[in-house]
Amino acid sequence: MKRTIATMAAAILAVLTAAPLTASADPAKDYAPTYYFKPIDANVDPATGDTVVYNYDIPDEGLDMQISVYVLETSKQAWWLGPKWKSSEQLIKLKDIYDYSTNTEPFAYSFVKNGVIDNNEYGFEISHDEELNTMACSVKTGLVRKPFVPYCDPTDQYELTHFTANISKELTWGYYTIHFLTEPEDYPDQRVCDAGLILDDGSSSIRTPIVKDMTIRISGIEGDVNGDDFVDSTDASDVLAEYAALQTGGESTLDDRGRFAADTDHDRIIDSTDASNILVYYSYVMSTDEAVPFVEYFENK
Ligand SMILES: [Ca+2]
Ligand SMILES: [Ca+2]
User: Fold this and answer.
1) Ligand nearest to the CA of 274
2) What is the pLDDT of residue 49?
């Protein structure tokens, strides 16, 4: 008899222990997870957030830049996460997306089972279309949809995956983006970024995530507005002429290359500050035998 009571008590205890997790409030209708990129070991301009590559640092085989993909998911109700991204510029080639399902290093949705990391508790998949220069990864629960238990809180303490962008030496100046796909671009039914949440009533709600694209600025021609390989007072005059033309509602006096070179402080405006920077650099060059390039001079100032 005693034994029976003990067994019953144990059974009741087991039921109590297995009681459902504290009910979570449904996320607001406009809640959505955020997908974003973060380059590893890259030069990021603190003023603009742009990732900066100096064109003279790109080797013949191109520059490999490793980039992490992060998800910030604060509702803890996701059962599906699917970022998809693309570089429209074929001279920035996406490659080597990392597959966490084949190793035990921790990532954002690793699960710990008996003290051991399991990266397959939630299905993790990657894909890469070399021709379209697109990539995707996804994490999802199986047949029985249930919210993920993230490896850490917040979820972006660890990446979701990473990949490499190979930047060609042929890119000598300009702004380029690696962007998340939010609408089909290559064919009508192309999959775009999405995220699935489990609501308290057990239904699934598909949300359009918030995405933060990444801008890569290929720098190195700044200051040399006329393209004669020197930064001098002629370039400053060209900037002032452009500024004057734009101020008076006139036509731009420069081509795309000239306009990029003229915007020396990268605020996307050509004005007297840019002309002044050119004159400051010009006098610096005149005063030293070993001048550093224009962009480095101002970034280290
Ligand atoms: Ca020049
Ligand atoms: Ca400017």
Assistant:
1) 2
2) 95
